[in-house]
């Protein structure tokens, strides 16, 4: 990896493009500008929608006390020279749907978005949010030909935050004292790690019994589906937007935060040629490094089972695109 910043405008005004102006994308745009992190280009295929959202956000600048620019557009040319491109475009889950059900509908959308954005922002770092996330991130990497340090998937931050919330609720403690670690795929086979999840440094294995931990792990795995079932007309967007924003912030401010994210593995954890959630340090160059935790045989087995499920999805996606080219 290069030791020099990949940003074109670190010393002036960084720019983040958010592709997809739905609830996740528009909330992310709001988070970024209100934290004063970067100017934002909000892009969507629906005429007028991103323009209207951008104008609405611009009209709130005086109240929120920031001076960031927000551009709404349907034209990829307006995204030129972005430092980070976030892809949220795609169809959300509906009640009864799994993330895997979205594979057929979202693969083409995400690949097309990545290719179009790359034309105008060849030096950007790309963060994928669209589900099924691990597969979509792999397809973006494959379609763009970019090095692995510049392609990331958001999921581990969200899954870990959900685990933290459930632990805090169960124990009745301050959420800020809870730190959790969830790795693996962003799906039913995600791997929460109770040993690496703590309350003010105390492992939850010393605070909760086995059955309670197992229940919280299962609730974490079904965290997104639980919200979809409650809302009926859509899925989560506040927490996904906040989770993505933390990644954007760590990169733009070169914080080198250790965050769980979907990264391309080249032998780490005994896995190769796959994007899956692992602990990553994120800074100016995107993926600065992958941290390999000391895992038990049972934990390694769970992580590999999660990876195997992702691999099957990737193979299925390759079949889809092969069929499209015929």
Walk me through the topology.
Layout (H helix, E strand, L loop, with lengths): L14 E5 L3 H12 L4 E5 L5 H10 L2 H4 L5 E4 L10 E4 L15 H18 L4 E4 L4 H12 L6 E3 L2 H16 L6 E2 L2 E2 L7 E2 L5 E2 L2 E2 L6 H12 L1 H9 L6 H15 L4 E10 L5 E12 L2 E5 L6 H29 L1
Parallel strand pairs: 1-2, 1-4, 2-3, 4-5, 5-6
Antiparallel strand pairs: 7-10, 8-9, 10-11, 12-13, 13-14
Helix pairs in contact: 1-9, 4-5, 4-10, 5-10, 6-7, 6-9
Strand content: 15-25%
- Return residue spans where pLDDT drops below 50 for at least 5 consecutive residues: 1-11
Output the number of helix runs: 10
Strand order of the largest sheet: 3-2-1-4-5-6
Q: For the terminal residues, how far apart are their CA atoms?
A: 37 Å
Question: Helix amount, in percent?
Answer: 40-55%
């Amino acid at each position: 990896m290069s030791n020099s910043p990949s940003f074109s405008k670190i010393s002036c005004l960084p720019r983040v493009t958010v592709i997809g102006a739905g609830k996740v994308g528009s909330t992310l745009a709001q988070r970024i500008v209100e934290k004063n992190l970067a100017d934002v280009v909000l892009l969507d295929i629906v005429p007028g929608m991103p323009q209207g959202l951008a104008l609405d956000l611009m009209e709130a600048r005086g109240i929120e006390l920031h001076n960031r620019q927000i551009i709404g557009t349907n034209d990829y040319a307006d995204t030129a020279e972005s430092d980070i491109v976030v892809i949220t475009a795609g169809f959300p889950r509906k009640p009864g749907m799994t993330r895997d059900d979205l594979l057929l509908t979202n693969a083409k959308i995400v690949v097309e978005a990545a290719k179009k954005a790359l034309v105008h922002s060849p030096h950007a770092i790309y963060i994928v949010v669209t589900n099924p996330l691990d597969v979509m991130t792999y397809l973006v990497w494959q379609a763009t030909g970019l090095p692995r340090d510049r392609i990331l998937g958001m999921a581990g931050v969200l899954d870990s935050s959900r685990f933290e919330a459930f632990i805090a609720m169960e124990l009745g403690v301050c959420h800020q004292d809870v730190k959790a670690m969830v790795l693996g795929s962003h799906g039913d086979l995600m791997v929460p790690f109770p040993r690496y999840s703590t309350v003010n440094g105390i492992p939850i294995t010393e605070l909760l019994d086995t059955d309670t931990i197992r229940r919280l792990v299962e609730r974490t795995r079904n965290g997104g589906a639980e919200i979809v079932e409650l809302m009926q007309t859509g899925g989560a967007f506040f927490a996904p937007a906040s989770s993505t924003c933390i990644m954007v912030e760590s990169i733009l401010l070169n914080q080198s935060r250790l965050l769980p994210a979907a990264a391309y593995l080249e032998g780490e954890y005994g896995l190769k040629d796959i994007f899956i959630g692992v602990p990553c340090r994120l800074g100016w160059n995107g993926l600065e490094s992958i941290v390999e935790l000391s895992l038990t045989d049972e934990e390694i087995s769970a992580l590999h089972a999660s990876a195997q499920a992702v691999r099957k999805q990737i193979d299925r996606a390759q079949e889809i695109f092969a069929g499209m080219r015929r």
